[in-house]
Amino acid sequence: MKPQPTHYFEKDISNCGLTGFVSKKGKRVEGSVIIKSISLMHDRGNGLGGGFGAYGIYPEYEDFYAFHLMYENVMAQQMTEEYLEANFFIEQQEDIPTRRTKAIVSPPAFRRYFVKPLENDEYKEAVEYQGLTEEDVIVRHVMAINHEIDGAFVVSSGKNMGAFKGVGFPEEIAEFFRLEEYSGHIWTAHNRFPTNTPGWWGGAHPFTLLDWSIVHNGEISSYGINKRYLEMYGYLCTMLTDTEVVAYMLDMLIRKHGLTPGLACTALAPPFWSFIDQLPDNERELYTSIRQVYGSALLNGPFAILFASNKGLIGLNDRVKLRPLVCAEFEDFVYMASEESAIREICPNPSRIWSPRGGEPVIAMLEGNV
Amino acid sequence: MKIDAQGMYYRDLNAKVREAVSGGADKIELDNVNGQYFIGDGINKPVTIIINGVPGNDLAAFMNGATIIVNENAQDNIGNTMNAGKVIVHGHAGDVLGYGMRGGRIHIHKDVGYRVGIHMKSYQENRPVLIAGGKAGDFFGEYMAGGVLILLGMYTDDPDKAKHGYLFGTGMHGGVIYVRGGVDESRLAKEVGVFDLDDSDKIELEGYVKEYCKDFGLDAQDVLTEGFVKVLPRSKRPYGNMYCPMPK
Fold this sequence. Notes:
By secondary structure, chain A is α+β, with helices and mostly antiparallel strands. Helices cover 29% and strands 26% of the residues of chain A. In chain A, the strands form four sheets. Chain A has a seven-stranded antiparallel beta sheet with strand order 8-3-10-1-16-15-17. In chain A, strands 11-12-13-14-18 form a five-stranded antiparallel beta sheet.
């Protein structure tokens, strides 16, 4: 008998992989490009989660909230559609086009709805008497569907954008959702290697709310604190994994509390006190206030995240850079990824390539009215 | 011999490299590399591997005597537990370079990331040397136990960036770091101190710098005209009293 090796000498790589890019001038790029980039980092995941965030893909419905729904059973779909009909004007509804593939076994059902909230009594009560905005009303509905309808999950709910995610390698998920048929000016992608929480369809990245979407590599040790803090403001965590809190936290900090994206990043990954102590008075006061007010928003643990919205793309590392993040620029494009090679695969000669410092956000916003 | 790595899966590429090494090749050129992991890992023959493109993570891990020349940028985790040989990178490189490295040389032309030289070590004639020609991120020389780290701060794509990051030398308890043009003492970890070079340091440093400059076609005099400082650990056991005081 042939002698067997004592070890299998190539180790299993255990990371998540993420990549994303934005055209600051709003040029639309086909889905095949982001697929190429994330596929290069195939081995950073283990087939238990892949997903994409895409912006600018529904220009014909840009004034409507694009609800991507995932249904685990027929009852969930019936109840959700009754809920949507009671609360929304539905301009268009359809199955999200998918392709039968070998890799994807027994997927849930996916439908999308392009909607506007109906100005019913509940809406008037919220807007006229409770001081809420239309977007707050949408957030309430998303939370209600996720929390109250068993087997129904809102995968995304923003205008002119959508999330496509599930259990599989990202290139398999892309094939399933026919992603090459979409074009967008911001794309993010994620390859999941779940470590602490289950690999299920709702647990794949991106996590979204309104047009916010987050892809994340790392783990958020402060999940419990962050979750309880968000619950005080009506955000309910239903996706069984840590990244969800980042989506809701950014919605609260930026949309509700009016922080700039840069300051919101400071709240998530603030400088150490020893560094703050060395700063001039005004900066020290600013950072001290952020840490005091938003102590429960601080994300502890190693992370690299990309978060996108209709306004742009932002990359952020934890304060001591325990996860990789590389950025590059070429013309009006800004790229961010876990590995430089994932960028070079789709942009061979960037004009600039750099690694941001831990806790230092890379902010790439769209120019003008794209 | 040449191998076209265009679109090749890392396992297939590394199998071909190992096959070429065991077949007696002394020079292997890999074209169109992009992101393939583990190139040169565990190779214990004095072959030269030339990489055209960006190699993936964990380049030259456990390498024992080979030379790798990267004609591009490189990524994270180069030379993990490398025993002997040399890695030359003609661009920048990422985080966690030379982790637990025990011998050989890593020469990076430009900037390097976080945690460079983490837990490098040395024993008797095994003395690893890692030289970064550009600027470095935080935790340079973290938990360093032996060997030589050199930071030049000269060849960078980011002139506005500080030469080195914060928490420089955190947990360092052995080895030596030489820095061209001095360090920012406000960014040093409490475990290290700054010293002037003595004559034997200068001779040793000159040898390392000349070899480095030869690899990149640089003039060693340009590097050596500026003074260097030496960063050393204050203690061989920085955490000896952390959990219970040590007997005097």
